Every structure is written in C-alpha cells, then in structure tokens.
Amino acid sequence: MLTDLGRRLRFLLVVVALGLVACGEPQPRGIPVETPQPAATTAVAVDPVSPVNIAHRGASAYAPEHTLVAYALAIEMGADYVEQDLQLTRDGVLVCLHDTTLNRTTNVEEVFPDRATEVKTGGETRPVWRVSDFTLEEIKTLDAGSWFSEEFAGARVPTFQEAIDLVKGTAGMYPETKAPEEYEALGFTMEEELVRVFAANGLDTHAGQAATPIYVQSFSPESLKRLHAIAGDTYRLIQLVGGGQEALLGGEGLADVASYATGVGPAIALLVEDPSRGHAARAHGLEMHPYTVRATRLPAGYADAGAYMRYLFDDLRATGVFTDNPDLFPRR
Ligand code: G3P
Ligand code: CA
C-alpha cells in the first residue's frame, strides 16, 4: 500500500513529467531583491530579514538529491529556495550534481564500465567516473534515482536549464559553483557559463529576479570574486565556509568577504564549535545561511529539526538555513 508521501511523490513525478510545476502564477517567497523597507511605525526593533528555507539538493531527505522530483517536492513543501550544485559535462553543459563524479548517485558503473579513470587516494587506487568525461547525451542515459529507492528508478540528472524551467516563478534558485578550478583547468569558466544561462532566461537583472530571487554560493572565494567582477551586485553571493576555512569567519576574513559577498554559509559544525562566529558574521552586516540541517543528524541536545532551526534564527541571527527537510522549517 502506498504511504501518504509515496502518493505525493507519484503525483509529483507526473507533474514533473508534464512540466506543469512552473506554469502556475509566480509566488515569490523569501527575501525579494531590493524590496523597499516600509518606514518604521513602532519603536520596536525588528530584524527586517525573514529567514529563508533553502532546500538542500531539493527535498533530499525524501527523494534522490538533484532530481526534478526532489526539486518539485521541495517547492511543494514550501521551500523559498531550491539549491543546485553545478558540474560541467564534457560538452560544457551545466548539470545539477553534487559530486564531480557520477558513481555515487547514478548507475554509470553499469552503463559505462570501461570509462572510469583510476585515481589514487591515501595510497589506494579506485575507479571514478568524472562528469567532465561524459557528454550530456551520455549522462542523460543514466538512472539517477534507483540508488535512493526503486520508487525513483529512471530519474535523470537534470541540466541547470531544466532546473530553471521547473523553479522559475515559483521559488528562488540557489546554485553553487562546484570545483570551478578543476573545470578551469579543462578550459571552462563556470562562472561565465552560469551568468550566460541566467541571462538567457531573463534572470540577469533585479527586475527579472522579482519572482525568482537568486543567490550564488561557493566554497571558492576566487569563484565568487570572479562573479562579483563579472556581474557586480546582480546576484547575491554567499561565501560557504567549511572545515579548514575558519579564517574566513575571523575579523579580517569577514571584512574581506564583505567586499565581494552578501553573506556567509558556515558549516553547522563550525557554529557548534564556536557560536560567536555567527554573531561576528552578522555584526559585519553579512547574511548567514548555515548548512545543513537534517532531521536524522542534529547537533547534540536537539531532538527536533524545527527547534534547532529556530535556535539558529533566534539565537545566532541566521537569515536562512540549508535543510534536507524543508517541510520542517519553522514558520512564525
Ligand atoms: O551549499 C551548502 C552546502 O550544500 C555545502 O555543502 O557539500 O552539500 O554542497 P555540500
Ligand atoms: Ca551545495
């Protein structure tokens, strides 16, 4: 017997197949670009920023990450933004996939057994199937759903264009430039391609983003600085900060980040280790979107994802959060 979630997923698969999700009236959510703030009418100081619900890899707790069904489910669950991690195919097309390789989330090993590259890590050699070794046509033959559950067999790796077609006008987009330096070595400039695709979809102006607000994120300061140089303040930029990058959350680091980005996205572990990092980022006038809240993997002392997200907003003044469970986002 189908569970409730199973029935909704089946419905969403049909909706995605018919391309209906993006056809409704635009319903912008989250922080609009350049929304004029009304003049204060009371003496109470209120943070004007309403925290945003960012669906990490789509509704990835319930559907295979970076598939159209995961994105559609995220929107149905009320996400303000849908995240896309970006890679480039051999023929230079932006696709939505977290890893630089296809092996974890597709059946590439079965379909193309002879196309692996041997890589050495920690003294061991193992085969990997790099996205950049395959054309889009080849990648489109792969099953990106079965690894998660047979219920999703046949789901495909979406192009960034397909993600835009699904999300535009219904929620915000939140792409991440992944491994831009690796693609640079292959002759691709990921940031230029990203900006080109946005422009082709009328999303390269603040007016064009009114119903589809955009953030671009990266762990690479160089990538964000390049985007800032290319596009100025057209896109709000979020500097992700992972383990080993703690200096970016120090005084000098934050001052530098504030010169090219609008906010930071710290790993939750860094905030658990030192919550004052969150306050410091906000004191520099930066937005803060920690990653990633997942109901089954919460910091010690929290049994409830909603309560943890509420702590991030109320105590650390986070202005949004990446979550695998967009349905558990606490709205006031
Ligand atoms: O982009 C925020 C978060 O997604 C960064 O981690 O590895 O899931 O891309 P990752
Ligand atoms: Ca990401």
Description:
- This protein has a domain at about 15-25 and about 50-100 and about 155-325: TIM Barrel (Alpha-Beta Barrel), CATH 3.20.20.190.
- The strands form three sheets. Strands 1, 2, 3, 6 and 11 form a five-stranded mixed β-sheet that branches.
- With about 325 residues, the protein is an alpha/beta fold.
- The protein contains twelve helices and eleven strands.
- Residues about 20-45 have low confidence and may be disordered.
- The chain has helices at about 5-20, 70-75, 110, 135-140, 160-165, 180-185, 190-200, 220-230, 250-260, 270-275, 275-285, 305-315, and strands spanning about 50-55, 80-90, 95, 115-120, 125-130, 170-175, 215-220, 235-240, 265, 285-290, 320-325.
- About 30% of the residues lie in helices and about 15% in strands.
- SN-glycerol-3-phosphate binds near residues 217 and 292.
What structural keywords apply?
single chain, alpha/beta, TIM Barrel, four-stranded parallel beta sheet, 15% strand, globular, binds SN-glycerol-3-phosphate
Give the helix/strand layout.
Layout: H1 4-18, E1 52-55, H2 68-76, E2 81-88, E3 94-96, H3 108-111, E4 117-121, E5 124-128, H4 136-139, H5 160-167, E6 172-177, H6 180-185, H7 190-200, E7 215-218, H8 221-231, E8 236-241, H9 251-258, E9 263-266, H10 268-273, H11 276-283, E10 287-288, H12 305-314, E11 320-323
Parallel strand pairs: 1-2, 1-11, 2-6, 7-8, 8-9, 9-10
Antiparallel strand pairs: 2-3, 4-5
SN-glycerol-3-phosphate binds at residues 56, 85, 98, 176, 217, 240, 265, 291-292, 322.
